[in-house]
Every structure is written in C-alpha cells, then in structure tokens.
Amino acid sequence: MTPPRPGRDAPVHANVVLAICCTSVLLMAMDGTIVNVALPSIRRDFASQTSGLQWVIDAYTLIIASLLMLSGSLADRFGRRRTFQLGLCLFTLGSGLCSLAPGLHALIGFRALQAIGGSMMNPIAMSIISNTFVEPKARARAIGTWGAVAGLAMALGPLFGGALAESIGWRSIFWVNVPIGVAAIVLTQRFVPESKAPRARRLDPLAQLLVLAMLASVTYAVIEGRNQGFGSSLIVGLFGVSGASLAALVVHEARREEPLIDLRFFRSASFASATVIAVCAFAAFSGFLFLNPLYLQEIRHRSAFETGLYTLPIALAMMVCSPISGRLVGAYGARPSLVAAGTAIATSALILTRLDADTSTTVLLASYLIFGIGVGLVNAPITNAAVSGMPRAQAGVASAIASTSRQTGAALGVAIAGSLASTGGRGEDRAIDAGFTAASHAYWWLVVGLGVLVIALGAISTSAWAKGTTRRIAQLLDDPAKADGREVLVEKL
Q: How far apart are CA 344 and CA 144, in angstroms?
C-alpha cells in the first residue's frame, strides 16, 4: 500500500485546519476596518475626490458580491483546498501591489484583485470547516471560534491600522497581509485535506456576467451621479443597464435547471425578507464605516490611532452581542433579535442626524455603542431566516445568497453615503469642511428608515404566513414531484 503523502493523504488534527481557515477571516476582517481608517491619509496622498475613496472600498465589495456564488461552484468542482489556496495567493498578491500603488486608479485596480482572492477565501474556508468537523457539536464550536476571530479582528483592526497609518503610513496596512498570507498558503498545502462536492453544480457564466453588470452599473451611477448629474444621459443609461441586467437575469435563471441563483428561494417570505434585511443592515454599517473616519480625522482633527479608539465600542458591542443573538435565535426565534437590531440601528442613526463638529464625545461614543449592538444582533437571524426550513441540501446555496446580499448592501451603502455627504466638499471635492457633517445628515435619516424597515421585516418574516410560504417552497425544492401539500418540518424561525 502506498504510504500517505505529507500534506495530502496524511491525517491532520482538525484544530490545525480550523486555525488555518481562521487566517482568512482574520485577513479580510482586519483589511476592511484598516482600509476605512486609512481613507483620509489616502485622500491626502493622492489628492482624491470623495468618489475616489468610495471606489477604493467598493471595487472590493462589488467584486466579492459578484463572485461569491461562482467561487463556491468552482470550489465544489475543482477542490476546496485548491480554490482556497488560489484565493490566498491572489489576496496576498493584491495586498502587496496595493502597498506599491503609484496612484489612485492603480490602488483601485489592485483592490479588485484582492477581492477576487477574497471571494475564494471566507466562504470556502467555511466549507472546509464544515467538512472537517462532521459532528454537530464540534462543528458548532468551530463556527463559534470562527466568529470570535472575526470579532477580534474587527476590534483590533482600527487600532492596529490607525497606529500603522499614523506611524509608518497607509501603505503599511497592506504590508501586514503579505507574511500572514504566505504562511497561510504554505500551511494550507501542508495540513488541509482536499475535498470536492459529490456532484458539482454546473457553471453559469452568463448569469455571472449579468450579476456583475447589474451591481457595477448601479454602483457607478450612484457614486458618479453627483459629479455627472443624475439626469445626464450617462447616469440614466447606467441605471437602465442595471435594470435590464436584472430583468435578463430573472428570465435566464428561470430557464436553467441548475441556476446560479435559484429564484424559487424568493417565494419564501422568510428568505426574501432575510436578503432585504441583509442589504439594509450592511448598507447602514458600511456607510457608517466610510463616513466615520472622514468625520473624525477631517472635521474633529483626530489622529488615525484615535479614530481606531473611537471605533472600539462598535467592535466590542459586536463581539458581545453576536453570540447573544445566536442564543436568542435558538431559544426564541429570529424576531426578538431582528426587532432589537433594527431598533438599535435606527436609534443610533437618529442621534447622528444631529451630528456637528462640536458633538460631545460622550454622545458620539454612545451612538457608536448602540450602533454596534444593532449590527451585532442582526447577523445570526439573517442566516437563520435564510436557511431555516430549507432542505439540508439547499442550505449552502441559501447561505451563499445571504452572504451575497450582505456584500451588495455594503457596496450600495458606501456609494450612497459618499454621494450624499460629498456635497460638503469645496471646489473639486478634494477638501472636506464643516459642510460635510451637515450633508451627512441625509444619510443618517436614510439609516433611520433602514432600521425601521428591519423591524418591520423582522415581524413579517417570522409570521405564520411567512412560515407557510417557507414550508411550501421547501416541499418544492426537496421533491418537486411530491409537492402536493405533504407536511414538511420547518425549523423555528
């Protein structure tokens, strides 16, 4: 018998695999918060407009949102370890190139390369964890560890990034990814076993192009609408392209046996509500992360490190509230967490509608803490509402769509926040003055509305009617030939 080959056939300890997979969430969670803290420094170095800073963030989130489903299909077909390693390579290469970017456009392009790699990291790492920890309790503990690492990265990212940006310069925030990424690539080859799906889903390249066209065109229109004019032929045309892409996607996916996005999921009111809630919550969160460093550093004249300290209450609240929300969902269903999350987001935003250059630090930190509570409470019920009641074989696809909704919301949040707040700029929008704060009030009022919408959808998605729609679509997805009214057990929502 052929002896096991190190790094391929040899058995490995599951916790080693978990530690390696957690490096992906560490890299991506820290990267997001670090880049936001460094935005004012990037603006000054490249004399960038606000729209340029929006693209530094949205070039990343747009690509992630567009490619998550494709990356999952590629991993199932060609191997999860292989795809995960490729993602680590691209993310690490993109990070190194970002640190060397000679100008804003190059930085945006390298951020897109980072995102291609990022789309192959966290979702596929979660698949590797699920295949490594087969016992339910062990899997739950592993996923809890994963979440704790994400929370720790969120907490440390702004402080670490602020210290680097202030002492060495913003380029250093990308350097730190390189050694971590290289180590993860080597360790993945050595310790992570390869796995594939027994039957991989067919690739759907046309749907993938339509998703990218839809998201990219609407985001470009929102970001550049202020400079070009929302009534200009270019911006109106881009909105038209987005709408036409959506219509074509619906028609195309309805005709495929194995679509990229199974539209039947949206017949479930619980699932459809979960996707909208994800878009709302993460649009609010990403917009907050975009505006906050600009306000603190440009208006309040705080350093990058002090900006990280101000952001700490949000991260700590998310760390504490995320596991609490999971237990609440398990005990009482999704409604209490969603209603509390929407209430916290709306309350925090309502406080920020009165934001000015002299707002007291106490009020500011209190609003940040409340906002963190809302975001911390919302994640678990989104995932639960998306997958509960669906056939087990479809849970992965449903979860992937929910993740895509989060990234879509993040991209739109940055686009909308920057467009509304940038009316405070002077000249060609290369400077930010007190008008920036007043202009941001429109965005905070929008977030109040998003919070109220989360509350309403939280109630609707957990109603008896919504559970009935989930029960019916679960029957159809599980066995279309027997979708004749037989009872299907639906998990408590």
A: 24
Of 329, 317, 383, nearest to 492 by C-alpha is 329
How far apart are alpha carbons 346 and 349 in whole angstroms?
5
74 and 216 fall within a common domain: no
pTM, two decimals, is 0.84
* DSSP letter assigned to residue 6: T
Considering the domain architecture, whether residues 364 and 418 belong to the same structural domain is answered as yes
Q: What DSSP designation does 2 have?
A: P
Predicted confidence band of residue 451 (pLDDT cuts 50, 70, 90): very high
Residue 44: exposure state from Cβ atoms within 10 A (0-12, 13-18, ≥19): middle
Give the domain CATH number at 81.
Answer: 1.20.1250.20
- Same structural domain for residues 18 and 116? yes
435: left (phi over 0), alpha (psi -120 to 50) or beta: alpha
Say if residue 126 is in the same domain as residue 31: yes
The answer on 483 and 430 residing in a single domain is yes
Is 3 part of any domain?
Answer: no
The β-bridge partners of 426 are 431
Q: pLDDT for 211-259, tens place per residue?
A: 999 999 999 999 888 778 888 999 999 999 999 999 999 999 888 887 8
Contact partners, residue 345, CB within 8 Å, separation at least 6: 281, 284, 371, 374, 375, 378, 447, 450, 451, 454
Instruction: Specify the amino acid at residue 197.
Output: A
Write out pLDDT tens, residues 137-175.
Answer: 777 677 767 767 776 777 778 888 888 888 888 999 999
Q: What share of the chain is helix, strand, coil (3-state, %, to 5)?
A: 80, 0, 20
User: Is the Cα torsion angle 83, 84, 88, 89 positive or negative in sign?
Assistant: negative
Residues 209 and 323 grouped into a single domain: no
Give the closest residue to 324 by CA, choosing from 311, 336, 312, 310: 336
CB 286 within 8 A of CB 61: yes
